[in-house]
Amino acid sequence: MSAPDPAGPPREARRARRSSPGQLWVAAVCTALFAALTITVLTVDGKRPLPGDQALHTWALTHRPDALTAAARTLADSGTGLWPYLLAALAGSLAGRNARERTVSAVAALAVLLLGQGLRQALMLAIARPRPPHADWATHASGFSMPSGHSTTSALVAGLACWAAAHGARRILRWCVWGLAVVWAAGVGLTRIYLGVHWPSDVLAGWLLAAGYLTALAAVTGGRVPVACAPFPANSRQRRHLRTRDMG
Fold it and tell me: Is the pLDDT of residue 242 over 50?
């Protein structure tokens, strides 16, 4: 095993800081699809629902028994309010290896979520798409329709959970977290269609926005835990090396 590079951070850390072409391509594709969907909605007279929107909306209205509607409301509630921020902070804390790293990672995860929320809010106000008719709603909703706030928020939190699991969990636990996070985010988004407060294209826009934003951020930062850029060695072997170098 090669010794740490005395001239700077270890080679692994320098490689982690490089942008991933794959992540950049995913971010570009998601951004392009989001832009195409937004332009399509804006060019429709009155920002009316797209053909697929109306068909799925009508299906939801005719398949809403009380039990499923109540369950959908409960699941949707987990994607708004304080819950997403608590989950994001928890995900960030799990990515650290000690108290300091857990604190910094939790704050970084919250910052990523808040920045994403600000971007979503700005786009929602700029697009200003009306929601489905109020008579079709089976829950409370506010604001404009696109992109869906619940869908974007839950997808952002799911992405942060997947990032945390990739850095701080064993393989089996990692796959469990990834699966649960994706299923939860998808479920929250679908409830917004089922409850009649969003068009399907609103939910798709939220997913695309979250995916594009997170993959672009991961490409820029190398997807590393934020504390990796701090001037402290990542492990005891590197700390011993620096202590020896300083004594010399």
Answer: no
Nearest CA to 132 among 196, 40, 201?
A: 196
- Token couple for 6: 């005395």
φ/ψ of residue 8, rounded to 5? 175, -165
CB-CB contact of 215 with 160 (8 Å)? no
Q: Residue 84, SS3?
A: helix
CA separation for the pair 118, 49 (Å, rounded): 25
Whole-angstrom distance, CA of residue 197 vs CA of residue 138: 8
Tokens 């991961």 sit on residue: 218
Q: Is 132 helix (H, G, I), strand (E, B) or coil?
A: coil
pLDDT greater than 60 at residue 13: no
DSSP string, 206-240: HHHHHHHHHHHHHHHHTT--GGGGSSS-SSHHHHH
At 229, is the pLDDT very low, low, confident or very high (cuts 50, 70, 90)? very low
CA atoms within 13 A on the CB side of 238: 15
Question: Which residue, 215, 236, 247, is CA-closest to 24?
Answer: 215
Query: Quick one: 143 exposed, middle or buried, by C-beta within 10 A (0-12, 13-18, 19+)?
Result: exposed
Say which range, 8-12, 38-42, 129-133, has the weakest mean pLDDT.
Answer: 8-12
- Alpha-carbon gap, residue 102 to 167, rounded angstroms: 12
Q: Which two tokens stand for residue 151?
A: 């869908």
Residues, the chain: 248
